[in-house]
Amino acid sequence: MRNICFVTGNQNKVIEVKKLIKNFKLISPKDLNFYDEIPETENTIKGNSFLKSSFIYNKFNIDCFSDDSGLFINALGGEPGVKSARYASEISDTEKNINLVLRNLRGEESRSAYFETCICLIIDGNISYFQGSVKGKITTKRVGSRGFGYDPIFIPKGYDKSFAQMSLEEKNQISHRSIATQKLVNFLNQK
Length: 191
Ligand code: IMP
Known about the structure:
Bound molecules: inosinic acid
CATH class: Alpha Beta
CATH topology: Maf protein
Distance between the termini: 12 Å
Largest sheet: 7 strands, mixed
Shape: globular
Number of strands: 7
Radius of gyration: 17 Å
């Protein structure tokens, strides 16, 4: 079975995707003895996903993919977007990020937003992208205690509860990351 590397430092993501991929052996950068963080310096999530995949592809000559996600708020011109992890400070801090979003949206009636994920796959030097997104709106205060990141302030369209009030299974039915991952898995399982 061919190896394919999921370029991420997040082992939970690796475990989730491993369950879904049938005809490749999924490995992670640490299996290549690579522990560095690849700087995400592009100004789009697509650019950052390419940066991470192409870095590992060029260094190790191994098929690989990586993902990048963000929350895009229309009234804030798409912010925090590609900067979602480090919106409020250079060191990623979820509490500060949420506070800043709520502060920037104070008094704002138009609260539409979407999460988006882009996955960049490189196999035999061929590049493919898989995207997933979920529309919704930003609450005026935190609701729910599950999930991570901006989950407590995001209510997906068609629902009256936030991502942080959903079980992981429920969130996975509709989330940006699941949609993009499913497209990747369908593609790989046909290889
Ligand atoms: P990553 O590219 O998956 O690491 O996501 C970048 C940042 O976007 C995270 O640090 C979170 O702040 C935010 N984010 C991405 N996906 C989600 C999600 O499903 N829920 C809440 N926040 C998310």
